[in-house]
Each structure stands twice: as structure tokens, then as C-alpha cells.
Specification:
Largest sheet: 5 strands, antiparallel
Number of domains: 3
Strand order of the largest sheet: 3-4-6-7-5
Helix content: 40-55%
Shape: elongated
Number of strands: 14
Structural class: alpha+beta
Distance between the termini: 49 Å
Radius of gyration: 30 Å
Strand content: 5-15%
Number of helices: 14
Oligomer: single chain
């Protein structure tokens, strides 16, 4: 292990202080000096030395980080009882730290530790460390109390009907939102710490009797292989452990809605919650989830099925139509009806750009307008996108820079692309690929490009589960929540490739 010096401390290149140089002592003042050395140059560390008013043998020091721990709780639950509770004598077989642990603290969660690494991690996470004279054990007292954002509806996942709660950046608050909806002992949470510098808390959430044990084991093995200095969001984890690292397709779900996560858990999936992020990751993720929305399960299933079919059609339109148009105009004019062909020819008269370049330029302009609308403040972003599209489109047509039919094609492509935001990155790349293939070989190139894309998507897996497994299923039950959303009366089973317990209807939990 390589180290560099930081003041009087020895710090390794993973960003951790070399705590092996320090040891806990039975002498309180020596322990105070040790903690000051570990937190050297950290002005947020607070140290309070106090003793019991009735028994001078009980002398303590507490350590906490200002802003991470609640000052009121430290004062009322730790300092006040230590100073004010009357203690005359106790059994000589018991140390002062045992006496404090058993009779003096008002805190709900207290544990003993002699592991300096655990103690330091707990203190920086908002807990309070308590040391007593004559003992080399440390009490870690739960005193977390940092400020968090209040619960509100996610702006990007609004629903017409259903819950309007969203996750926040607090791990504990997010787990409580899930627990409140699944009141069963079958719900399990497994905690991990990732990031050599950030020491970010990560929690795996699943239903014990439903989850696929093979998927769970594979996920844990991959999480254990992560070596990175900081994990700030779920996408850090997704990129490091996904099955196909170079594919543009999503192979892990992401949502800010507790109800969506609970729905995934009830199908046998696993949720990954990262402290500091309001986005929860769910695995395995299948292609069919790209056309499913929250409202599908809160609205009438006839209406939900129509909406889902429209999303499937939108994927085909936004991906294929630009390439199809380029192939027709550039190579296969005989396939276009005569009047439409004359109209397109007249509109393109005087346009200097080849059809493929014209298409790619207009698609790029649309993406620029969409990005500018997203990055601008919300009160001007939508107006800027609409006005920009109208002004630029009209000016480009009048200047004969592009043709009017191309503006229509790009507008249809852009609108249908907004219908399926979950796979917008993949759609953008595949659409460009098909335009290029069509510009080289016409309709033959388009067909070859589509075949390559289908072969790639079919070959994908998500944590050992086939990405398009619903296509292989011969079970009618497996197809009742794919392109159409059937009534809950008829959906009696879970996806067999995801869950270890496929029975859904009539099942009773613990």
C-alpha cells in the first residue's frame, strides 16, 4: 500500500487515514489526542469532556461532527444524563463505560466498539462517539440529524392518479417509504458501503420469498468487486456492474417513485438505494419495461393498453422513419406515390444539402433545442423550445436550407421520441445509425441496420436474465403485461424468469 504524508497523519492513496498507527487507550486524554490527530485540520469536529456531578470517577469525552449530529439530542440524551444522573457506587467488576451504557444514556441506539475504522466512519456519518476514563471501548451513539429535502412528487414522473410521494436524498427516509408500503417481515434490507473516499451507504432491498436467489447472489458478487473513490448516484453502480457495458440500451431500471419500486419488488426484482440520491435502481430490467409507465396500473386497463400500444408504435416511428424517408427519396423514388413524389421534389428544389445530411442536421438541431429546454430555467425553457423550433424551422424552409417535408419528418420523429424517454439515448444512436445505413444502401441498408439492432437487443441480458425473455415465453400469463395491460383479475402469476415464486393472485404474505 502506498502512502503520502498529510500533516502529521499518514494517508493512503485511496484517501483513507492509516488508522493502524493509532490505538485506543484506557487513558481518556490520550484517546482525545488520538481523535484530534485523526481529524487534524477538520474544524467541524466537536469535543466535549465532562464528568458526573456525583461520581468523579465517571469522566467522559464525546466526539461528533457539527452539522451531521443533532446538537439537541447530544445535549439531552448524552451530556445531560452523564452529568446529572446520581451515581454513588457501582460494582467494581463493571467499568464506567458499562455503567454509562446500561444506566445513563437516553439514546435509542447505542453499541460498543473497539474498531477505530468503524468509529471514525460512524462519527463522520452523524453518530457520536463516547469514551470514558479507564476503558478502551467506545460507545457509538445514534445522533444523526442533518437537514434533508422534504418528500415531494418527482417532477419527471408525475402521474394522473396514484401516490404523489417521491424519494429524497436520505437513505433512511427512502427505506421507510418502501417499508410503509410493504408491511411484512419478508421485506429485507442489506447494507453495504461503497467508495473508498465517499464511504457511501448502499442498501439492497428485496422480498425474501419472491426474489430470484441466483440474481441476488450475482448482484452481490458484482457489488463486492466495485473499486472506486466515490459513489454519488446509482448510475455509478450501474455502469460498473452491468452485463453489457458498451450497449446504449438500459439494462437497469431507475425511478424516484416508491410505489414503482414496490411494484418491482412484488415481481421479484431487487432495488438498490444509494445514500444521497433520490433515484433508486431496480434489477433485472427487461426491454418491455421501456414501454410501461406508472399510470398503466392506476388507470383502466383498456385505456392503459391503448397508451402502451402507442408507446410501442412510437419506438418504431422515432427509430425507423428518418432512415425510411432517406432511403425512399435517395434511392427508391418509384415507391413514392406520384403526387407525393412531385410535392417532395418541388419542396427540395434549391436545397443544397444531400437528403441524408439534411436529415442529420435537422435531427441534431431538434436535439439541441430539446437540451436547451431541459437546461434552461423551467419558466423560460418550454417557451424557448417552442419559439426556437418555430422560428428556426420556418427560417430554414424559407431560406431553402432544408425542405418542408424534412421538417415534418423530424418533428414527428422528435415527438414520438419524447413518448419513450426511458430509452432516448439508445433511440438517438440507433436512429442515426439507420439514417447512415439508408444513405449508403437505401432500403437494403435500412433492413440490414434494423436486423443488426434486433440481433443486438435480443442478445442482451440483465443480471443473468434475458433482456427479451418475454418473446420466448409460451405461457399466456407471461404475455398479459407486455404489449397490453390485462386486468388484475387475470394476471395471476409473476414473471417466471425473475421471480422464484410465480404465484401472485390469492397469495398471502407474512
Amino acid at each position: 500500500m502506498l502512502y503520502h504524508n498529510s500533516g502529521n497523519r499518514k494517508v493512503n492513496y485511496e484517501g483513507k487515514v492509516d488508522l493502524s498507527r493509532y490505538t485506543l487507550s484506557t487513558m481518556l486524554l490520550k484517546n482525545v489526542k488520538t481523535f484530534k490527530a485523526i481529524f487534524e485540520n477538520d474544524s467541524m469536529l466537536r469535543i466535549r469532556v465532562c464528568e458526573n456531578a456525583y461520581n468523579k470517577d465517571i469522566r467522559c469525552a464525546i466526539f461528533f461532527i457539527d452539522g451531521m449530529a443533532t446538537s439537541e439530542q447530544v445535549n439531552e440524551s448524552i451530556v445531560k444524563p452523564i452529568v446529572e444522573i446520581k451515581v454513588d457506587e457501582w460494582s467494581k467488576e463493571r467499568s464506567s463505560i458499562d455503567e454509562i451504557y446500561s444506566h445513563m444514556l437516553y439514546a435509542a441506539e447505542v453499541k460498543k466498539s473497539t474498531d477505530l475504522d468503524e468509529i471514525v466512519r460512524s462519527v463522520v456519518y452523524g453518530d457520536t462517539a463516547l469514551m470514558a476514563e479507564g476503558s478502551d471501548e467506545v460507545l457509538i451513539i445514534n445522533s444523526k440529524g442533518w437537514e434533508t429535502r422534504s418528500i415531494s412528487e418527482p417532477p419527471n414522473e408525475k402521474t394522473l392518479r396514484g401516490p404523489h410521494e417521491g424519494f429524497t436524498e436520505s437513505l433512511l427516509k427512502n427505506t421507510s417509504l418502501i417499508r410503509r408500503r410493504l408491511r411484512t417481515s419478508d421485506l429485507k434490507f442489506k447494507s453495504k458501503t461503497l467508495g473508498t473516499r465517499s464511504n457511501t451507504g448502499v442498501c439492497l432491498c428485496y422480498l425474501e420469498s419472491i426474489v430470484n436467489k441466483d440474481v441476488l447472489r450475482l448482484l452481490e458478487e458484482r457489488l463486492n468487486t466495485i473499486v472506486i473513490d466515490g459513489v454519488l448516484e446509482t448510475n455509478y453502480i450501474e455502469e460498473l456492474i452491468r452485463d453489457n457495458p458498451w450497449t446504449p440500451m438500459k439494462t437497469a431500471g431507475a425511478t424516484e417513485r416508491p410505489d414503482v419500486v414496490v411494484g418491482k419488488l412484488l415481481e421479484g426484482r431487487i432495488a438498490i438505494i444509494v445514500d444521497g440520491s433520490p433515484t433508486v435502481m431496480t434489477v433485472p430490467y427487461l426491454f418491455v419495461e421501456s414501454v410501461q409507465t406508472d399510470d398503466d396500473y392506476y388507470l383502466n386497463y383498456y385505456f392503459a393498453s391503448i397508451g402502451r400500444l402507442l408507446r410501442v408504435i412510437s419506438i418504431l416511428i422515432t427509430t425507423i422513419v428518418p432512415g425510411f424517408y432517406v432511403a425512399l427519396v435517395a434511392f427508391h423514388k418509384e415507391m413514392i406515390p406520384s403526387r407525393l413524389a412531385l410535392s417532395i421534389s418541388a419542396a427540395r428544389d434549391g436545397v443544397p444539402l444531400p437528403i441524408a445530411v439534411e436529415c442529420l442536421v435537422m435531427l441534431a438541431v431538434f436535439e439541441l433545442l430539446r437540451e436547451s429546454g431541459l437546461r434552461m430555467p423551467s419558466n423560460v425553457g418550454s417557451a424557448l423550445s417552442i419559439v426556437g423550433a418555430i422560428v428556426i424551422g420556418q427560417a430554414a424552409v424559407q431560406a431553402k436550407f432544408v425542405s418542408a417535408p424534412m421538417v415534418i419528418i423530424v418533428a414527428i420523429t422528435g415527438i414520438t421520441g419524447l413518448v419513450v424517454p426511458k430509452i432516448k439515448a439508445a433511440v438517438l444512436l440507433y436512429r442515426t445509425f439507420l439514417v447512415l445505413m439508408a444513405s449508403v444502401m437505401g432500403m437494403y441498408g435500412l433492413v440490414v441496420g434494423i436486423s443488426i439492432i434486433i440481433a443486438h437487443v435480443v442478445s442482451l441480458t440483465s443480471y443473468g436474465v434475458k433482456y427479451t425473455s418475454f418473446l420466448d415465453s409460451v405461457s399466456e400469463q407471461e404475455r398479459k403485461d407486455v404489449y397490453l395491460r390485462y386486468s388484475w383479475r387475470t394476471m395471476k402469476t409473476r414473471p417466471a424468469n425473475i421471480s422464484s415464486n410465480v404465484v401472485r393472485k390469492g397469495e398471502k404474505g407474512e
